[in-house]
Each structure stands twice: as structure tokens, then as C-alpha cells.
Amino acid sequence: MAFFGGKGPDVVLECAGTGSALQPAIDLVRPFGRVALVGIDNDSLAISAWNIVLKGAGLLGVLDLDFGGGMELIRQKKVDCREFLTEIIALDRIQEAFETLLKPVDEEKIVIAHEHGAKQWGRDAQE
Q1: Rounded distance, CA 35 to CA 108, Å?
Q2: Which CATH architecture has domain 2-61?
Q3: Is residue 111 within a helix (H) or strand (E), and if so which, with residue range?
Q4: Dihedral over Cα of 103, 105, 109, 115: its sign
Q5: Which of 25, 60, 94, 105 lies 20 to 30 Å from 19, alpha-carbon distance?
Q6: Residues 6 or more apart from 24 whose CB is under 8 A from it?
Q7: Closest listed residue to residue 112, CA positions, set 103, 122, 96, 104
Q8: Strand stretches in the chain, DSSP E
Q9: Cβ contacts of residue 14 below 8 Å, gap of 6+?
């Protein structure tokens, strides 16, 4: 909080899509700040409304994202997100990947990659 002058940031981007990440984002944002919901989850989110109401904070669903810009940062190795990935799978297993995402047992973050793409991520696609 000291980094933000003791008041919290004006905007917090919640990208995980889980209740366990959303509540800390609400708690962190400064009074009259905004929490942008970027992550998507299939489950309902249980949060306490106290800090939203007392801070006058706003929740905003975000759909228009610059995925191309984000991928470019990853390509340039300015962002390393491999540690967040649950799995990298081969393109020929795409149906299995979507079925996994529909019934997650954990917080699934899957990259679907052809052979060359998987090597760019620093490991082989699982076949």
C-alpha cells in the first residue's frame, strides 16, 4: 500500500477469474476506485460487499482486451507466464482441452500449441 500513497491503486485488474482473487482486489482498490473483472470463471463468485459499498468502489466487466499486444509482450520475453500454465497441449488434442476447461478440477490455464509454438513456450506439447 505504501507504493500507492497508502490509499491503494485507482484501478485493479482481476485476471484470474476466481472469488479468491476478486475479494483481495476489492480490498486493495482505493476509495472510489475501480476493479476490472478480466478473468472469467464458470462458478458463482462469493464476495463481501462491505468494501465495495464503504469505498464507493466500482466493479467493471472487461471484454475488449488487446490480446495481440499481450502476446507480443510474451513473444518479446518481456512477460514470462509459463509458471502460471497448468498444461501445454498439442493442437491435435484441442477437443480434450475444451472439455477440460468446461469441467475444471483446478484453475486450468492451458496453451494449445503446434509443435513449433510449444517449443517457444520452453517445453514440448504433451501428446
Answers
A1: 23
A2: 3-Layer(aba) Sandwich (3.40)
A3: strand 110-113
A4: negative
A5: 94
A6: none
A7: 96
A8: 11-14, 34-37, 58-61, 87-90, 110-113
A9: 21, 22, 25, 35, 36, 37, 38, 39
How far apart CA 51 and CA 67 sit, in angstroms, is: 31
Phi, psi of 42 (to 5 degrees): -75, -20
Neighbouring C-alpha atoms within 13 Å toward the C-beta of 74: 16
Whether 113 and 89 have beta carbons less than 8 Å apart is answered as: yes
pLDDT for 87-100, tens place per residue? 777 778 888 877 87
| Phi, then psi, of 90 in degrees rounded to 5 | -70, 150
